[in-house]
């Protein structure tokens, strides 16, 4: 009868080291074969919704898993820092709203990232034009009614809620102020939800917000939409006029979402990712789901996003400086 010899201590050590090395190699390989899509907001919010709506189809287009990672906080700076420290290999992407890349640089002078130099544009994802709403119990039929009432208020200004100082809703209200020669009183909230709650309760007179965040209140009859802050009408609410149509020029606010990659990402990689994102967004099921929320599916070239970023950075910076807006 033969007995199998036990391995020596050296053999045990060799086997353990080999196993660790193989495990690390396997982990590294798995890590390199997936894309991280970072979102600077908590799960369940509108940007997170878009990320998760497109991630599964995007994985099919790229041929490997796409993992959505939520990195909220510091007005997008935490997610931005994670992106700019990542390898420029197209495997770490940032899905962000316009605020973090076109508004924050003017609002926060000591921002720890510079969108124009630290990020590579990949693709616009969706447009979210601002729609102005009032409590449905009021008599305002459209934006012109609201402006006329506001212009006649001498003792107590009409109030306009926003989701925070320097937010797109706040800046849209400033555009209306400037275009119509009004003196609307800004009432900032910590997010859209409490602003919406107070508008329902009649504590404020109006609110600009992204269409997806207001669809429920509009469709249920709680809010009346009175104007679109865009050059064209909304496909979701085609009967609501733009402020331009009502005679108030320059009220044009788009809280778009877009994908960026770290500095150093090649033009070829950015273009390839852009094509994959466009295909994912226009897959019928994905497009239907997103557009049902009220957002407008886009998908663009890196060059188109770069131009949009430059245009909006210039526009919002001018408004912020002209009105001396500082963060709360």
What is the gist of this entry?
With 328 residues, this protein is α/β, with parallel strands linked by helices. It has helices spanning 9-32, 46-62, 77-84, 98-107, 115-118, 143-152, 168-180, 192-200, 211-219, 267-281, 284-292, 302-322; strands at residues 35-39, 66-70, 92-97, 119-127, 130-135, 159-162, 185-188, 206-210, 223-229, 257-262, 296-297. It folds into 2 domains: 35-127 and 256-322, Bordetella uptake gene, domain 1 (D-Maltodextrin-Binding Protein, domain 2, 3-Layer(aba) Sandwich); 130-229, 3-Layer(aba) Sandwich (D-Maltodextrin-Binding Protein, domain 2), CATH 3.40.190.
Could you explain the architecture of this structure?
The protein is α/β, with parallel strands linked by helices. It folds into two domains: 160 residues, Bordetella uptake gene, domain 1 (D-Maltodextrin-Binding Protein, domain 2); 100 residues, Periplasmic binding protein-like II (D-Maltodextrin-Binding Protein, domain 2, 3-Layer(aba) Sandwich), CATH 3.40.190. It is built from twelve helices and eleven strands. The strands form two sheets. It has a six-stranded mixed β-sheet with strand order 2-1-3-10-4-11, sandwiched between helices. The chain has a five-stranded mixed β-sheet with strand order 7-6-8-5-9, with helices on both faces. Helix 2 links the parallel strand 1 and strand 2. Helix 2 crosses helix 10 and helix 4 runs parallel beside helix 12. The N terminus is likely disordered.
